């Protein structure tokens, strides 16, 4: 009887020990799995964060990068003057200008504007669309309709410019041949009250319409 009890006790201790070893093995496996999962999640988080950062950086660069055919100028003076200004580009996109801006809240002009007034409007964040006699009547009509629906824009003829259609913002200019050019809408969307604006939110009414 005593031998049987001893054997039973020995067997029970052996089973308990085996269970402890199995449980310890499971704990080790669970720890390894947990560490592996955490490593994967961390790598995915870092990778995802880098991807989002890169995507945001690319998007920001796309916003600020000039579009195809666009010309840019910097270091443009902003003094108010009462004299005529000899601008280095036609139409002008910045520099000294009149103290009075041209009204630019969806304003349609059928006569040429003084550039000194128009430049002041660009300083306020407006986009100036100008055209010469090479622009078709339908294109002028389409551009006029766009201006009539868009605040901080104005349109006028300009016989001195070389391109049929020119879009100007402060420090930026784009020339196109047709109003249907997709860059027209992109330019207007980008530069109406855009980041280039020296005086964002400044008035586009209360100036001159002549």
List keywords for this structure.
six-stranded mixed beta sheet, alpha/beta, 2 domains, DUF3105 domain-containing protein, 210 residues, elongated, DUF3105
Written description of the protein model:
Keywords: Membrane, Transmembrane, Transmembrane helix. This is DUF3105 domain-containing protein. It holds the Pfam family DUF3105. InterPro entries: DUF3105. With 210 residues, the chain is an alpha/beta fold. It folds into two domains: 65 residues; 121 residues, 3-Layer(aba) Sandwich (Glutaredoxin). It is 45% helix and 12% strand. Strands 1-6-5-3-4-2 form a six-stranded mixed sheet. α3 links the parallel β3 and β4. The chain starts with a helix and ends in a 19-residue tail after the last helix. The mean pLDDT is 86.
SSE arrangement:
Elements: H1 2-64, E1 71-72, E2 105-108, H2 115-123, E3 127-131, H3 137-148, E4 153-157, E5 165-169, E6 172-176, H4 182-191
Parallel strand pairs: 2-4, 3-4
Antiparallel strand pairs: 1-6, 3-5, 5-6
